[in-house]
Structure formats: structure tokens, C-alpha cells
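HUMAN: Ready with one sample?

ASSISTANT:
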Amino acid sequence: MAVAAKEALLLMVMMLEIVLFLPPTLVSAKEEENREFWYSQAKSQMAELFEGRRSSKGYAKNVILFVGDGMGLSTVTAGRILKGQRLGQSGERYRLSFEKFPFVALAKTYNLDSQIGDSSACATALMCGVKANINTVGLDHRGIFEDCKSAYAAGVPSLVDWAQKHGKSTGIVTNTRLTHGTPSALYAKTPSRYWEDDTKVPAESQSACKDIARQLVENQPGRNINVLLGGGRRHWIPETEHDPEEKEQMGRRADGLNLLDAWVHDKKMRGLNAEYVWNKAQFDGVDPRHTDFLLGLFGYTHLDFEADRNHGPEGDPSLSEMTKKAIEVLRKNSEGFFLMVEAGRIDHAHHHNNARRALEEVDALDEAVLTALNLTDAKDTLVVLTADHSHVFTIGGHNTPRGHPVTDVDAEVSDVDGKPYTILLYGNGPGYAHSTPAGRQDLTDFNTQDINFVQQAAVPKKYETHSGEDVPVYAQGPGSYLFSGIIEQTYIPHAIAYALCITEDNSHCGKEPEDACRSLPAPSQGKGKDQDVSLPPVLDIHSVYEKVVVHLPDQDYSSVGKHDPRTAYEPFPIQDSPSNDLNSYPGHALASAHEPESDYGRAPVFVPARHSAPGAELQPTSKSSTISNQYAASNSYSDTYNNGVHEDPKHFPAYSPIPADEPVLSRSPTEERNQGRDLPTNHESPTALHPYTGQDPLSAEDANSAPAPMPIPATTSRRPLSHTTPATEDFQRSIDPWTSRGVSESFSSRTNSHRFITITVMFLITLLQIQ
């Protein structure tokens, strides 16, 4: 009896261990995802929808418009799965915060003259309510690309114009440059999105058309925007001044204007409580209770990707942190506010076929939405989330098991070439991989889940393109019922204005919403009392600015804030960093002289781990680093993508999965040729040999072409893909016996499985001893 009791006790312990340590997908799949589960889930979602529809009545006091630049449906789906898997779930059933919104629509993203939408023209539709021509900003159909004169009559007001006219506070938050295509549509009227500073404006147009940065500081509605948080300091400071953070970089303005000083001076002269900050420490020190105007420029160009962001005091605030600070400043206005928050770097990662970074940016956007929802009341705040356009980005596979890592290869190989392929792919872009004699590159030995992995693409292009598919629109709060069905992108700002009661005719705001939605008057298209709907002639700003320059050092900045702009630009000391080691840089291609400056961030060109190009010399890699310990410890690629693809690619250490005591590729012949002299348009990055051809991608014969970035071979231990002759035999992928998932499943799941196996063996041994 005693033995039987012991056996029964041990059996109970074993069953408890099974429940505790076996992965949830095996323990609970059958009992959870049965018929009753799905019936219950449907009822729960109906209840959520009914509650959301009830809260959609009435009119909004505040509106927050979130824009995921380039975030199409496939990006949302992949982002959802990745975040769910990080939280220990299979991922497919997970819902991002905005996917719980009760109203969803699909918006068409074409431009007036383009089937496939451009960011600036799409932003004009999204912010101003009119379709525009490609590469123009804030102009209607009469605006012609790079035609200054066309801007005078074609300017249109935006949501910021309408909100300010009705006494509301306004704000812009972005992790791109504040003068970039999407945010600039809220305040600028310009025939070219590329006119971010005066050096980009043609000489014949400079006397009549202001650049985008000047419009933000000097014109309506830009000068009255309460919160401006983003990047792009280079377009604000003169070419004779150093950037405060990247001291080797100079400003871009050739007109001698310092728009940072001009912004501070304008707020001082108007007696406003204003503050300018440029790093996280200063940002964290801002007290929103005593700040009515806040300017934060945290990058020389775009802010770092979230995966590469420096979290320290000299780094940048996250998108979520900037959203929080903006709301805290804006919500003090009893009349309400309008805030636009852009996750702009989703787009940049997609242009480089770098899916993992794009999905990390989706996660950052989701966190910003959660922050906004926690700080606002759904009864008076309308939250709308959408994208300006999509990308040629796909998610697919054949019989891919539930819970399979979304950034991994599919569970089966291609039935044509017998090679593995990733679940995430692109229609075109730099990941085009027909680079071997055998055709498509074999990914068997590559770590496809690395943050720097470049997905394969079907068609070769220097940069991946946008797609023409419709994009989702999610809405919650008062007036969210207006967002349903298939809509034009131009409809969105009109619906927002209607819900916020900032249309020209707001008589509907005195009625019940059910009666009011019979007619939807459009926002005013005429020139209102406080509106500046057309681009005015340029004033003699030099005479005005002379006073600012002369008197600025003598001003009392106590009312502006504790950060004196006279000392805000002092650079901090240079730190010993791989960014100062010319031998650490990956390759980089020069831009063609005839094409516009790229806005996508620097392209990742990778040095293969443990492989050296033919004929390359070897030398030790630098062991020093200025990136945070979090990234240094993981040997993560810390290319911040802080500059444009062809814009001063200097300050990033190379991808270094190789231990510090192992050698890396030395400089290429092109680096030696260019050493000690300036390259055209500041393209001073040395060039690594192409990782597979061993050739100099910047040779004299092909100086304007970019080498296709290649995936990174795995350097960490990974179970090999088991196959013999792929062309004739079925490919058998290594599967974890307990999770039924790929070998790249999370460490925690494998650990639980190993614990279970160990405990089971121990139980059997104990049972045999008892008997």
C-alpha cells in the first residue's frame, strides 16, 4: 500500500509538471480552441463592438491621428504575430491595441497623377482632404512638381489650420525629420517635398518660395503649433555650425539662418512659455505644466530605429514617450487639441527589404497608441490610425504550422529549386538574390531572424517600392462611426473635422449624432480669418533675422526654459567609438547626381560573418563602442540608419557578430582612393568589398549603383536544416518534438520542453527504484 501511495503521489507530481512546463500550444490547444471556444470568442467580440459603437456617438473634443508610414495590411499582420510570439503566444490570435477599435475602413491611396501613392501626396490627401500630384505637399491639383509659381494659387488648409482656427492646441510627433513628407503636409505648401532647406530650392525660385523648414518657423499654421517633436536639425542650422550631437556634421542651410534661434526668439517676443530640447535628458526635464510650446529635435536627420535607439540621457525618447509628453502639454487647453503621431521608419525599413526592423517599428507604434489610450478619455477623444500607403511586402507559406516564427523560413522548401524561403518576402528591392550561378541564393546557413537580415525580393531595385493596395483605417471614440467601408483617402480629414466640430459649418454639433450624420459639410476651402491658404511672397527675412542674431545673446531666456539656446549647441566630447574607425564601416553606394536625395535611411550592406571576400586583407576590429550595453552585449548591428541612404553615412559601427578578437574586412581600394578628400555631396563612407563577389561596388565603372545587400550568415548555434538532395527528395525541417515548431523557436519554449523531458526521466528512474 505504501508503494502504491508513493506511485500515486509521483504520478500526481508528474501531471502537475506537465501542466506547468509543457508549452501552452500542446496543453491547451485542444481544450481551448474547440467549438465552444470560438462561439464564446465571437460573442465577446460582439459585445466589444456594441460597446464601441455606443461610445462612437457624440462629438470629439480631442483627436489623435496615428500614421504608420507604409504600414499596409500585411505589415500589420506580421507585426501582430511577432509581438504575440514575444509575449509567449503563438501570435496569430494576438491583437494589437488598434485592432480592438470598433470601426475599420479601407482607404484608396492613389495620387492625382500616380497609380501608386507617394508619401507627400498621400499625406496631402490624408491631412488636407484633396488629392495631389506626386511629390508635392499641401497643394491641390494645380500644384506642379518643382514649379514654384504653381504653389501660390494651389495651397490648401490642413487639419492643423482648421483646429487652430477653432481655438484648439496642435502638435506633431514623428520619428522622421519634422520637414519630411508626411508631417510637412500639416503646415507647408510647396511644389517639392525635397525643398526641406534653402539649398534644395532652385536658385530661380529662392526669392519667391520658402523652403519647408522656414515655413514651419515663420508661416501660419506652423509657427503656432504647440508641440513639435522629431528629427532633422540639419535643415534648421547654417552650414557654418556644427550639429550638437554629431559634431562632425554641419548644418545644411546656406542662407545663414539659424531657425532654432528664430523659433525661440519668436516665442520669447510673444511672451510664450516655450522650450527647445535635443536629447532625452533635456526632454525628460521638460515640465508640461509650465510649457505651452515645445520643440524637440533629437536627430541630425531621422531618429534612430527603435531597435537601434540609445535609451540613455544622450539618446532619443521613444515614440511612446514623445506621445505622452505631447498629450500632457496639449490637454491643458480646455478647447481640446489635435495631435498627429507618425511612425515613419516603418517605411524606411521596408524600402531596404529589412522586414524585422519594420515590424519592430510597428511594435513601437502600438506602444504609442497604448500610451495615448491610457492618457485620454474615450468619451471625448477620437483616435484614428491609418497608413499613407502600403509596400510590396507579403507574408505567406505552405502549411506553415501555428506558432512558427514569423521572421523565419517556411516549414517547407520550394518545390521548384529545393531551397528554403522566408515567410516574409518582397516584390522588389535590394534583396533580389539571383546572385549565384545556381540561381536563387540558398538560405540554409543563414539566420533569417537576425535584425539585419534582408528579405529576398522578386525584382531587383535599389530601393523597394510602395504598393497600390488600399490601407486600413481604424477608429475609436466619438465620431468613429464615420469610418467604415471603402473610402477615398481624402475623406479621412473631412470626417475627422466633422467629428471634432472644426468644419466651416458646425451647425451639426448642436444636434444628436444620428440626425447630424445625414449631411457632412466639408471644411472651409476659402480663406478664413486666421488662415493662410496660399504661399505668400517671401518677406525680407534677412533684415528681420538680423535683429534676432544681434539681440539673441542678450535676451533673458528664463521664460523660455532652463535650456539656454545659446549653449544648447555645444557638442559633447568625442568618444572612442567604431564610428570613428574608418575600417569598421560596411560598404555604401553613392547617389546618382540626377536623382533626388533618398529619404529612406542608410541601406544595410553587411559583412558576412566568418567569411572574408577573396583577396581582402584582414585586421583586428575595434573593441570600443558608444552604443548602449544592451546592444553591445548582443553584438547587434547598431547602424542607426540616422542618415538618408546617400547622406553622410558615417557614424555607425559595422555589424559585428564575430567575436572582438577575430578579424574583419579591411578597407577597399575605393576607401584608399578617397582617403583624405571629400566625396561629392558629403558621401564620405568608405566601402567594403562586396561580400560574395569580392569586387569593389564603388569602382569607377559603376560609381552610381548600389550593391544588393545580402543576408547575414548565421553565427550562433542553430540546428542545421536537414536535407540530402533538395531537387529530388523532400526537404525535412528540424522540428522541436514538444512544440511542433521550427528550431528557431524562443529560448523559453525550448527550456520548458527540456525541463519537462528531464523531469520525466527523473520520474521514471524514481519509479523503477521504488519497484
